[in-house]
Amino acid sequence: MDIQSDAPTTPLSTVRDNIARSEKIAGRPAGSTTLIAISKTKPVDAIESLIGEGQMVFGENRVQEAALKFPALRERYPDLQLHMVGQLQSNKADEAVALFDCIHSLDRPSLAKALAGAMDKAGRRVPCFVQVNIGEEEQKGGCAIAELPRFLADVKALGLPVVGLMAVPPADLEPAPYFALLAKLAREHGLDQLSMGMSGDYETAVRIGATHVRVGSALFGAR
Ligand SMILES: *Cc1c(COP(=O)(O)O)cnc(C)c1O
Questions:
Q1: Rounded mean pLDDT of 1-26?
Q2: Atom in ligand 1 nearest the alpha carbon of residue 223
Q3: Distance 32 CA to ligand 1 centre (A)
Q4: Ligand 1: residues whose CB is within 6 Å?
Q5: Most buried in the list 17, 30, 130, 214, measured by CB within 10 Å?
Q6: Which of 5-9, 52-56, 110-114, 197-201 bottoms out in mean pLDDT, i.e. has the lowest?
Q7: Which domains does the chain have, with CATH numbers?
Q8: Closest among 77, 79, 121, 85 to 102, alpha carbons compared
Q9: Which of 211, 214, 187 is nearest to 198 (CA)?
Q10: What does the alpha-carbon distance between residue 128 and residue 115 come to, in Å, rounded to a whole number?
Q11: How many whole angstroms from 109 Cα to the centroid of ligand 1?
């Protein structure tokens, strides 16, 4: 905490301070974590109020909702970055490639093919995280851990720009072991970016090496 600062404390300033402290504890460079403000279900004016505090990176989990909220915002704020963090249907690949700057939910061969085709058509390469079903939960999205080597080889063969791994650990369990496992898998595959950590556990995630945290309710209030 900067004791000379007389700027008011806001949810965003608190999250930024917590991230900075966690980076320091972990011996990581200051500013090495990207904070993605997850604005799903939140109105445009709530997004603009974070933009007013200098937050430029946002995330949504539905193509349709992002398409309603973000094109107008992007015209006003050309530096905005929009990340897709939710399950993506293959038939929305074209729209997703047009709308988003990064996709965190690449998790199956059919979607990989659809995204590769969409990127070729659009002449636009959108960086992707491969989502891993890190807790091996039946109902959850994400590539199975056992399938990961083959899936990563497939997406590379398709020419998709894969930058790292993403996961959502099981609810109500200590998340640190799952974050550590995701970090280990990324290392084994030579990937250096990690999308992990949400409102309840982003500080833990940063200490374990998250390069991208996805924080919604701690910034915008409960949904
Ligand atoms: C909603 C969502 C988040 C943010 O969750 P909070 O607990 O509100 O911070 C992060 N990641 C994904 C994939 C989400 O769907």
A1: 88
A2: 8
A3: 20
A4: 38, 40, 61, 85-86, 168, 198-199, 214-218
A5: 130
A6: 5-9
A7: 11-24+31-220 (3.20.20.10)
A8: 85
A9: 214
A10: 10
A11: 24
User: What is d(CA 80, CA 116) in angstroms, rounded to the nearest whole number?
Assistant: 24
Tell me the CA end-to-end span of the chain in Å, nearest whole number.
28
Task: Tell the residue number behind the tokens 């959850």, with chain if given.
Answer: 140
- The two structure tokens encoding residue 165: 């791994």
Whose C-alpha lies nearest to ligand 1, atom 7?
199
pTM above 0.85, yes or no: yes
Nearest of 185, 203, 70, 152 to residue 194 by alpha carbon: 185
Ligand 1 mean position, distance from CA 61 (Å) = 8
Which atom of ligand 1 sits closest to the CA of residue 104?
Answer: 13
Q: How far is CA 27 from CA 30, 123, 127, in A?
A: 9, 39, 27
Task: Write the secondary structure of the chain as one string of H (helix), E (strand) and C (coil).
Answer: CCCCCCCCCCHHHHHHHHHHHHHHHCCCCCCCCEEEEECCCCCHHHHHHHHHCCCCEEEECCHHHHHHHHHHHHHHCCCCEEEECCCCCHHHHHHHHHHCCEEEEECCHHHHHHHHHHHHHHCCCCCEEEEECCCCCCCCCCECHHHHHHHHHHHHHCCCCEEEEECCCCCCCCCHHHHHHHHHHHHHCCCCEEECCCCCCHHHHHHCCCCEEEECHHHHCCC
Res 7 pLDDT > 80: no
Decide if 12 contacts 50 (C-beta within 8 A). Answer: yes
